[in-house]
């Protein structure tokens, strides 16, 4: 290990830590679902519900936590992704181009608050 | 390119493919999905140090294309190609200067591999949010890069030929 190795580890750890402390630490309030970059809908995490996304994926919300429970794609990677509840965490289904992102309301812009 | 070099690189591609296959068979579970140890990168690192970036580039590109067809899909090839090219490019920039150990080189390579894949994901998904996923991969990349670096260092120390 050389000095530059330590600097590299330090820099990357600090970047990650800044995000963990200032972004990922907040509890999320809403889940925003987009398909192919276009917003599909925004749902509250407070209410337990099952959301059908375009008949391709199914997202379940229980106890302020979102989990992808069904997908019609062959790889099923999004099903195995962990449940999300912290600000800016997301579940991505690449084949269907679906992103479910949970967001803390006090951080979001006003156009999202309209929903 | 001499015949012995072609043969040598061919064997290296095969070894890298076997590593990919082992990881495909026994995926090591990490808390965040999408994280792999990237055993095949041991081969790329060793070739980079022994034979330079051109040889490493060919082995890594051929490895990615073949393993994509064998264990993945065309989309996976695109992701891996961008990832491994960016990774090799960054490692080539710093490995000769002797200012980083092989672990440091490997760690930067791992981070850049993730960055490349996330950039493709951002374009494919047409969403910026994927970058937050990259952040959660950073610490894992340091860890896996370090492990791969140590293995490569041990292999280079043996020096078979």
Explain the overall architecture.
The complex is a heterodimer of chains A (115) and B (161). By secondary structure, chain A is an alpha+beta fold. The N and C termini of chain A lie far apart (52 Å). Helices cover 24% and strands 36% of the residues of chain A. Chain B contains six helices and no strands. Chain B has helices at residues 3-25, 40-51, 53-71, 74-95, 102-125, 130-158. Chain B starts with a helix and ends with a helix. The mean pLDDT of chain B is 90. Chains A and B meet through helix 1 of A and helix 5 and helix 6 of B.
Spell out the key features of this protein.
heterodimer; A: 115 residues; alpha+beta; four-stranded antiparallel β-sheet; three-stranded antiparallel β-sheet; 3 helices; 7 strands; globular; B: 161 residues; mainly alpha
Task: Itemize the secondary structure elements and their pairings.
The complex is a heterodimer of chains A (115) and B (161).
Chain A: H1 3-22, E1 30-35, E2 38-44, E3 49-53, E4 57-62, E5 65-71, H2 77-80, E6 90-93, E7 98-103, H3 110-113
Chain B: H1 3-25, H2 40-51, H3 53-71, H4 74-95, H5 102-125, H6 130-158
Quick overview of this protein structure:
The complex is a heterodimer of chains A (115) and B (161). Helix content of chain A is 24%, strand content 36%. With 115 residues, chain A is an alpha+beta fold.
């Amino acid at each position: 290990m050389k000095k530059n190795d330590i600097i590299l580890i330090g820099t990357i750890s600090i970047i990650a830590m800044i995000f963990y402390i200032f972004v990922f630490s907040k509890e999320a309030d809403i889940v925003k679902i987009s398909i192919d970059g276009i917003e599909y809908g925004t749902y509250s995490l407070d209410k337990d519900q099952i959301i059908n996304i375009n008949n391709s994926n199914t997202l379940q919300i229980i106890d302020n936590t979102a989990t992808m429970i069904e997908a019609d794609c062959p790889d099923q990677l999004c099903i195995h992704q962990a449940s999300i509840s912290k600000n800016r965490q997301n579940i991505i289904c690449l084949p269907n181009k679906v992103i479910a992102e949970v967001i803390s309301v006090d951080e979001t812009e006003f156009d999202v608050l309209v929903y | 390119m001499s015949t012995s070099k072609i043969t040598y690189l061919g064997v290296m591609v095969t070894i890298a493919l076997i590593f990919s296959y082992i990881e495909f068979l026994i995926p090591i579970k990490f808390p965040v999905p999408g994280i792999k140890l990237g055993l095949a990168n041991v081969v790329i690192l060793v070739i980079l140090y022994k034979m330079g970036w051109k040889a490493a580039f060919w082995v890594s590109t051929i490895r990615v294309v073949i393993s994509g067809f064998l264990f993945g899909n065309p989309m996976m090839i695109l992701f891996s190609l961008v990832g491994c090219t960016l990774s090799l490019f960054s490692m080539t920039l710093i490995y000769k200067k002797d200012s980083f150990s092989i672990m440091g080189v490997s760690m930067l390579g791992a981070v850049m591999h993730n960055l490349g894949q996330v950039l493709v994901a951002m374009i494919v998904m047409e969403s910026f949010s994927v970058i937050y996923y990259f952040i959660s991969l950073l610490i894992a990349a340091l860890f896996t890069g370090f492990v791969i670096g140590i293995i490569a260092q041990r292999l280079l120390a043996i020096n078979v030929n």
